[in-house]
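Design job #97: recover the sequence.
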């Protein structure tokens, strides 16, 4: 079910322009509220629409050891101020009967992130969602992000927030391996 209402998005964008003292009738602004903002909002909220979910194709598993994907770029929208938060997600899972295509982990993170949410809820959504999608003994997700609502207004500081969620039992070795992979990814890429 498509829960995006283009007409309301258009009307809302037009009212916001009026609220900040701009004239929606200005030539340079007509496409902004009539076309660009509604299209942008439709894309950036697709994570609430199941029909937009990437196909999570699986293969017969060749391993039961932990698969770790680090450094997935993450862009989402904070539901408090409608401003972006962005950073990096790291995902790990232990396959049981089947394993998933590696790109699907990143695709899934991108799809899930496209919604108005909080970082905590998003971390939980990705971990529980992936656990439902793939046949995994356990899933772990870590997100480190910076919030524009903190950087551009309010406290006016750009800081990093880290959230973690696990589904199923991770052994101490699994946790160490996940941690070490994240460490290596962070050292290789200066995300902030
Ligand atoms: N827990 C959590 N808080 C968030 C997230 N994104 C933004 N926030 C915080 O949500 C809070 C909203 O606080 P309020 O006091 O209702 O709003 P505010 O007066 O605009 O807050 P300030 O940002 O402190 O100016 C702020 O502290 C934000 O930093 C998030 O993903 N998770
Ligand atoms: Zn905010």
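Job complete. Output follows.
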């Amino acid at each position: 079910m498509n829960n995006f209402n283009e007409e309301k998005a258009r009307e809302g964008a037009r009212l916001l322009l009026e609220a900040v003292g701009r004239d929606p009738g200005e030539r340079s602004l007509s496409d902004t509220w009539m076309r660009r903002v509604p299209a942008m909002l439709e894309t950036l909220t697709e994570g609430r629409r199941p029909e937009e979910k990437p196909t999570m194709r699986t293969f017969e598993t060749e391993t039961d050891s932990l698969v770790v994907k680090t450094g997935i770029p993450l862009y989402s929208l904070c539901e408090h101020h409608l401003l972006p938060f962005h950073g990096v997600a790291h995902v790990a899972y232990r396959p049981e009967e089947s394993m998933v295509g590696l790109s699907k982990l990143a695709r899934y993170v991108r799809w899930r992130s496209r919604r108005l949410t909080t970082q905590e809820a998003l971390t939980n959504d990705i971990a529980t969602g992936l656990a439902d999608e793939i046949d995994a003994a356990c899933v772990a997700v870590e997100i480190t992000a910076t919030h524009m609502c903190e950087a551009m207004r309010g406290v006016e500081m750009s800081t990093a927030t880290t959230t973690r969620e696990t589904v199923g039992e991770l052994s101490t070795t699994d946790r160490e391996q996940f941690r070490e992979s994240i460490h290596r990814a962070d050292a290789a890429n200066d995300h902030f």
